[in-house]
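Consider the tokenized backbone below.
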């Protein structure tokens, strides 16, 4: 993903760590919504993963992986504000996506409000 080869995960790695290691070897175009949600939630490969995640969210803002409706949006919204200042075009795109959303779950509404206040 970032031309940064990770060694194999340790034998006692958690399922999350082992999965993240495996997903970093998968071509970005083959990542599922769940794959992107997991990696973005771990702050892995954000410069490479946020653009395709925003493409998904543009078509379906409440796209979901394996957790709940809107889990990809939650993962994207809850990244550190620094990512949006280093990639302002991505921040503008996310603002367009979330600015007209309504009827969101309360936790998503809070994150949308927090993001829009940045």
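A designed sequence for it:
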């Amino acid at each position: 993903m970032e031309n940064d080869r990770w060694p194999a995960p340790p034998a006692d790695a958690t399922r999350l760590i082992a999965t993240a290691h495996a997903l970093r070897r998968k071509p970005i175009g083959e990542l599922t919504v769940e794959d992107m949600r997991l990696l973005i939630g771990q702050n892995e490969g954000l410069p490479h993963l946020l653009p395709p995640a925003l493409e998904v969210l543009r078509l379906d803002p409440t796209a979901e992986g394996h957790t709940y409706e809107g889990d990809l949006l939650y993962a994207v919204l809850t990244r550190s504000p620094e990512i949006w200042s280093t990639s302002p075009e991505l921040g503008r795109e996310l603002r367009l996506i979330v600015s007209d959303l309504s009827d969101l779950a309360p936790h998503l509404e809070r994150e949308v409000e927090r993001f829009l206040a940045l």
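The two ends are 28 Å apart (CA to CA).
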